[in-house]
Amino acid sequence: MRYQSILGNCNETTIGRMVEQCPETSSVFQSYSLSVSEDRSKTVQQAAAQAGIAGNTLCRQLFDVCMEHKPLEEMETDTLLELLSTEYDAVHLQQLPALHRLARKIEAVHRASPDVPLGITRAVKQLEQTLADHVKREEAYVLPRLENDQPPSPDTPIGQMNDEHEVIKKQLRGLRELTHNYQVPEAACRSWRRLYDELKALDFSLSEQIYLERDILFPRFQF
Fold first, then answer.
1. Residues with Cβ < 8 Å from 37, sequence gap 6 or more?
2. Burial class (CB within 10 angstroms; exposed 0-12, middle 13-18, buried 19+) of 7
3. For 91-146, how does the pLDDT look when each residue is reduced to its tens digit (9 = 90+)?
4. With the C-alpha atoms ordered 41, 42, 43, 44, is the resulting torsion angle positive or negative?
5. Contacts of 205 (CB under 8 A, 6+ apart)
6. Which of 5, 41, 186, 212 lies deepest, with the highest CB count within 10 Å?
7. Alpha-carbon distance values, 87 to 10, 95, 141, 144 (Å)
8. How deeply is 94 buried, as exposed, middle or buried, from its count of CB atoms within 10 A (0-12, 13-18, 19+)?
9. Chain centroid, CA 150 distance in Å
10. CB under 8 Å to 210, separation ≥6 — which residues?
11. Can you count the helices (H) and strands (E) in the chain?
């Protein structure tokens, strides 16, 4: 999950706004001799520069504090729905076609290598198709019905969505088996390494999304 999902854009979110969202973050700013009252109009990025630390370092510390005191389980439903749409569904659907092309390249160029993960092109394509169909149904028949915490109609296919999550998890397990948990062979080229790195990141992100939906969002509306 990106920092922006919780903190907003660190080039725009001010110290004052950050403390309003999560009062406990004031201790982070104070640890760098930043005044919450006098410096409240400064952005998080400007605060990091003044403190002499990297922006990512300050963002990570603020993010960790927010998650400790305002966990995802307590996130408002509409905020969670927006997070799922923009940070997960849209990103995954954009990533998978490129990963499919990269997998096809690796499997073709290195077909003579005993280390090449035979069938990975087909596996990535199947995941792409499964996820695209799942997202289409979910966005049409499930997520909009949960907005504003309104009880969805009894025919909302939440159970079906969870069944499809299990299919996606099975396909992710298949990718892990093909790639030996994304362990790149020693002689692998740069493209091969990039494929495994991006598949591993996708695996983590998709698993995180399934957790957010299955274990946090959907239980709020189970009949």
1. none
2. buried
3. 899 999 999 999 999 999 998 999 999 999 999 999 999 999 999 999 999 999 99
4. negative
5. 88, 91, 92
6. 212
7. 16, 12, 20, 17
8. exposed
9. 25
10. 165, 168, 169
11. 10, 0
Tell me which amino acid residue 129 is. Q
Average pLDDT value for the chain: 90
Contacts of 28 (CB under 8 A, 6+ apart): 58, 61, 62, 65
Q: What is the torsional sign of CA 26, 30, 36, 40?
A: negative
Cα–Cα distance between 152 and 149 in angstroms, integer? 9
pLDDT digits (tens, 9 = 90+) for 9-27: 778 889 998 898 889 989 9
